Amino acid sequence: MTTFHLRVTATTFGANFSDGYALGIIGAVLPVLSTTMHLSGVWEGLLGASALIGLFFGSIVLGRVADAVGRQKLYLYNFVLIAIASAAQFWAHDPLVLFLLRLVIGFGLGADYAVGPTLLSEFAPRRLRGVLLGSLTVLWTVGYVLANILGTYIPITDNAAHWLLASGALPALLVLLLRIGIPESPSWLAARGRAVEAAQVRRKYLGQSEATAEAASAAADEQPPAARYRELFARGQAAKTWFGAAFFSAQVLPYFAIYTFMSLILSTMDISDADTQNLVLNLALLLGGVIGLWPVQRMGRRPFTIGTFAILTVCLAAMAVLSDASGWVLMIPFLVYTFVMAGASNITQVYPPELFPTALRGSGVGFLNGTSRVASAVGTFVLPVSLSHLGVGWSMGWMALVLLLGTIVSLAWAPETRDTLTAEDWHH
């Protein structure tokens, strides 16, 4: 673990913090914007899902670009786009303009979802890959929780709402500055026949001896230099691709929907002190993410995924069955769900890069993030309508069914990838 590893890790962490903050802050300011912008229910849903829609297109399109032109360029320039669009939200007093800016922010973040974990997985020592990739979700949670706390305890006027939206430019700018000078992935260079450059990167940035660097680059050089997008669905790879899309989507659909509209859920549950309960749930989210790093590192990917899906399914099913109980009774399974979901989400940064070889990794991770963001956007758009028309019980019931589907898919198809040894990390 070198200082360079720490730098790459920090800038990738910063990207996930920015994403969590951007997605959390819109939920915090939407109640005020609904009044000042005279938003309809449709516009509320669109603004809540806007960054997620952009994430879909950014992940799908730019993940493929990362495999074709390299990781480093997108890793740097996507945050130029994010910083500018985030700052511009200060002047966005029309819902259409705000929606378009958040689409752009999501598009840039989508690129980072495809490129960030990919680049980090190709630089990180294998024995630390799980904890480093899993920590990305913890930083996402930190950004999200901070946005929620600011939204809860800062008196939000229309002007304050736009300041909060624009404040996302600050972490984005810091990430951009830290990323200047980070080199291309040596695994990608070697796979493209540029073994000499790859060995130079390994020696200079990873502190490897000349013999080790050259041997590692030669091993990566033996992989196919490029792969067509359709190879994600070819024999031998298709099962991993579709499993990844299904498990990722099933996990994040209720996650984003519930935590974007947590205040609305708490009000529907008739919680008297909703602000305090909101804070408690956010702290459980943060604590669960940190504690959840340990089982991600120690357990296999398959048992961790199956076990957490089962617990989450039971929690939301309990909320559905107990929907007529008092709000304090409903808070018990809600707290357990929040804690476990935060830890379970760590696997979404670990599993995807391990499901694909180097030549397909950017495309594959981008595809999984993109499809999962479709599910997130659908859940975020549908949940407020469901809560108003069906209530907490039925809303939690259909989301429990989504998690049950994730459990079944994981039981049937989840591979074990914890000890997968790829060409780019065999020397560690």
Question: Could you give a short description of this structure?
Answer:
With 428 residues, the chain is an all-alpha fold. It has one domain (3-413): MFS general substrate transporter like domains (Growth Hormone, Chain: A).
Helices and strands in order, then pairings?
Elements (H helix, E strand, L loop, with lengths): L2 H34 L4 H29 L1 H18 L6 H29 L2 H28 L4 H9 L2 H11 L6 H6 L3 H12 L3 H12 L16 H23 L1 H7 L5 H18 L1 H6 L2 H21 L5 H18 L2 H8 L3 H56 L15
Helix pairs in contact: 1-2, 1-4, 1-5, 1-6, 1-7, 2-3, 2-4, 2-18, 3-4, 3-7, 4-18, 5-13, 5-17, 9-10, 11-18, 12-13, 13-16, 15-16, 15-18
Describe the structure.
- There is one protein chain.
- The protein is mostly helical.
- The chain has a single domain, classed as Growth Hormone, Chain: A (Up-down Bundle), CATH 1.20.1250.20.
- It has 18 helices and no strands.
- It has helices at residues 3-36, 41-69, 71-88, 95-123, 126-153, 158-166, 169-179, 186-191, 195-206, 210-221, 238-260, 262-268, 274-291, 293-298, 301-321, 327-344, 347-354, 358-413.
- The relative contact order is 0.15.
- The model is unreliable at 421-428 (pLDDT under 50).
- It is a multi-pass membrane protein.
- This is MFS transporter.
- It comes from Streptomyces yanii.
